[in-house]
Known about the structure:
Blueprint lengths: L2 H4 L9 H7 L5 H9 L13 H10 L6 H14 L12 H13 L3 H8 L3 H4 L4 H8 L1 H10 L4 H4 L3 H15 L2 H15 L6 H21 L3 H15 L1 H15 L5 H14 L5 E6 L2 H11 L8 E7 L2 H14 L1 E2 L5 E2 L12 E6 L5 E8 H9 L30 H10 L5 H12 L4 E6 L4 E5 L4 H9 L6 E6 L2 E3 L10 E6 L18 H13 L15 E4 L8 E3 L6 E3 L11 E5 L5 E5 L3 H8 L4 E2 L1 E3 L5 E10 L4 H11 L3 E7 L6 E10 L5 H9 L4 E6 L1
Parallel strand pairs: 2-6, 7-11, 14-16
Antiparallel strand pairs: 1-2, 3-5, 4-5, 5-6, 7-8, 9-10, 9-11, 12-20, 13-18, 15-16, 15-17, 19-21, 19-22, 20-21
Helix pairs in contact: 4-6, 5-7, 6-7, 6-13, 7-10, 9-10, 10-12, 10-13, 12-21, 12-22, 13-14, 13-15, 14-15, 15-16, 16-18, 21-24
Amino acid sequence: MSAEATNPEAHPEAPPELRRRGRTRLDLRRLGRAALLGPTSRDRLPDAIGHVAEAHRAHYPDADMSVLRRAYLLAETSHRGQMRKSGEPYITHPLAVTLILAELGAETTTLTASLLHDTVEDTDVTLDQVRAEFGDEVCFIVDGVTKVEKIDYGAGAEPETFRKMLVATGNDVRVMSIKLADRLHNMRTLGVMRPEKQARIAKVTRDVLIPLAERLGVQALKTELEDLVFAILHPEEYESTRALIAAHTGERDPLPAIADSVRAVLREAGIAAEVRVRPRHFVSVHRIARTRGELRGSDFGRILVLVGENADCYGVLGELHTCFTPVVSEFKDFIATPKFNLYQSLHTAVATPEGHVAEVIVRTRQMHRVAEAGVVALGNPYATGMPDPAADPDEERVDPTRPGWLNRLLDWQQSAPDPDTFWSVLRAELAQDREITVFRADGGTLGLPAGASCIDAAYAQHGEAAHGCIGARVNGRLTSLSCVLSDGDTVQLLLAHDATSGPAAEWLDHARTPAARLAISTWLEAHPGRAMSTTTAARAPLSVIGARGGGANAVADLPGAPVRLAGCCTPVPPDAVAGFVVRGGAVTVHRIHCAAVAQMRAVGRTSVAVHWRATADCRVTLLAESFGRPHLLADLTEAIAREGVEVVSATVEPPVEQRVRHSYTLQLPDAAGLPALMRAMRDVPGVYDVSRV
């Protein structure tokens, strides 16, 4: 593929929007030649980084530029004589990467590390030298973006390099910021590579770097990377989209007129706002064309409204929906419910009297900065509470910007020692582009990908202890482990304390997170044939029947009549009871609220008064509901025996969705011990409810 096709910035016929997004505002060849002339005088910044300093001062007017000067001099000296494949001096690359970050608003430490990001990898400069000259923060970031040695890892060098960067990003998100800017500049200048190498780099960018840019909220880098990858991997669709945009450029664009109307409406309402027309990038236009077919003039861009305060966003929304016709289905409130990548805005669409439909984005200026630059816009996350330099260097630093998806990556990568497994699972994880937050029963939260089940929540919260998970309550209701969670659900996970418990093979059908799938697969491989089964073939109930007693300590006011306790409600002292004469002259005793009592009275049967003797022994039937697991029946029987209670009969129903019902008819020596018995049965792992029949 030609250089022009792979680098839209250099394409003389590329549309203005793509060329604007691609420009670096640096003449790299001129600055490269200037860099080879050597360092300038010590009292001013070298001309080669003047653009970087200008962009940096726009965000940080009081920034100390002396450290950037020292970093540039070290980078220029160490890279002197090295050339890029394009024929440019190598120093032009770290300069361009640093300018990208400076324009996004990166702070001085990030820019310093960016200038030095290739020195340890490609020159004789060591990490110790970087630490001595620029401190631990810069040294940590430079080490994080330095590739592992291919001679040590062979074909696994690229996956292991990304693993190293992810681990470093877990401690400092600025590591990945530099990597994204580095890849953007490399993609801009990829035209000098062989077509097969262009395609390989573009695929890694598509599968790994673009999703990471999305998750870190760096939309400015993500959109340009998408366009550059689009041009390489889908050249025909790219050319078709370019032709669409070029044809639209010659037509009358309705968006500027709609923007003028919006300005007038907001001015009349007294809302200070900046209204812009924001053209869509190539991939966005391509997606809209695939969804809608023939494009309208207003489909090539959106209207962006910037205000000062959050309340003004809703004020703008009210005016737009009052003065234009709103398209209700297009409204989304990402201010009240921000995206997991820090993004906040109001999205809506309005129709004008002329029939045009325009999408509108409303946000504050700070929201806009974060939407464009993501974590880069947050500045230095360690500006306060910096770790003690004398502390253990292996101790993990707490990054306040670390999101849930990154925690998941850091957790499961430890269980994927094989580079191929890590690489394939990483791509699968990053392909999941939405995240939900669920609440734990103890008040904490879990970040999970959309579509995650209770199984994923179990492994996210409990790690390998989730092998013994036997059920869950979602929003207070019992449910199966395969239940798919929604954003905002509250989940309580029920674990068995039996060390022999393990996951079922069917769990893999419902696990979405790599951590859960790796843990389940590892356990199943280590325990062949021992996996729990969530489905059991239907079988007859298991019954254990002992000797049946009579009326125990119930006495009927009918001299000489034998007394029996009804099996349907098993009354015990001090229950209110009623007796009814049945065939043979016996009196059957029921609890007063038993359904059989109402039926007897409905057919005109007369009740017999019944009272309890002073003796306290009684018979009762209890229903224990539980999640199926090995040895459950034995554990329940043992718990009953410890309370000194005799089992008269027991019935176990076949499992349904891993839930089992046990019915026990029990002879208690003292009715007062019934509450303690029921508590003891509920304490058996897996039992979630015990009630009287």
